[in-house]
Amino acid sequence: MSGALTLGAVVAETRAALHDAGFADAAIETRILLGGLLGLSTTEVFTQADRPVTESERAKIADAVARRLRHEPVHRILGHREFHGLDLTLSPDTLEPRPDTEILVDTVLPHLQRIVAEKGSARILDLGTGTGAIALALLKECPKAQALGSDISPGALKTAAANAHLNGVADRFDTRESAWFAAIEERFDIIVSNPPYIPTEVVDALAPDVRDYDPRAALDGGEGGLVAYRAIAENAAQHLLAEGLVGVEIGYDQRQSVTQLFEHSGFSLLEQHRDYGGNDRVLLFRFAG
What we know:
Blueprint: H1 7-20, H2 26-38, H3 42-47, H4 55-69, H5 74-78, E1 80-83, E2 86-89, H6 102-119, E3 122-127, H7 133-141, E4 145-151, H8 154-166, E5 173-177, E6 188-193, H9 200-203, H10 208-211, H11 227-235, E7 240-249, H12 255-264, E8 267-274, E9 280-287
Parallel strand pairs: 3-4, 3-6, 4-5, 6-7
Antiparallel strand pairs: 1-2, 7-9, 8-9
Helix pairs in contact: 1-2, 1-4, 2-4, 6-7, 11-12
């Protein structure tokens, strides 16, 4: 990027670099990346095509493009991502929240609102909270709810707490270091989790954007990708209040196996939902034992 350049020229150059490197969504990624770096909306990236790009901005863009060419995800380069109307800070300790996880929020939300309407309040446990995405989105939508986010990673818990402050719900969100229920004694109205569900033998074959940048502990679900679901299914009932619910995100081919684990522990399947690609993605259970 030498000589005087306009934003339009930088957009074209960035898009071409990503396209030539094989990135299928080069145009979309260019809008998001340059908009985030320059503080512009994705629309303004194009409507301000004649805007001059300063030397410092050009250096920042060049560094970001080089990082993307090494397959670092766009939102990790920018350091944050939108999720269900929240602005979430990302860190190396956290999984990057994806749009499909919003389906879990939308599945649980009407039940949470019903419980609050009946009881005046509700308590949520988010197992493996990461950025805090699921719990914080539910808290933002339901002002009378409270949530505890647990994780094995102190770094993830720090990030989740920071995101709670950033999104104005810190007074209703607590964190705790725990391997699933190991350090959890309380009971909750709703337990939610997007646990690691990739089978160990598959993790190394994942796209580099995921394999090299999401923490392995947030991806590797052990044999068959079911280790976390087994731990949750076997212990959730003793941490649920009466009529409590458990909502989990699953891998595209895990509906039957995860359902069987929960049914074996006395739960019944209440709802199942698919993601935007038509794959099984969310299961909601009620304890029936």
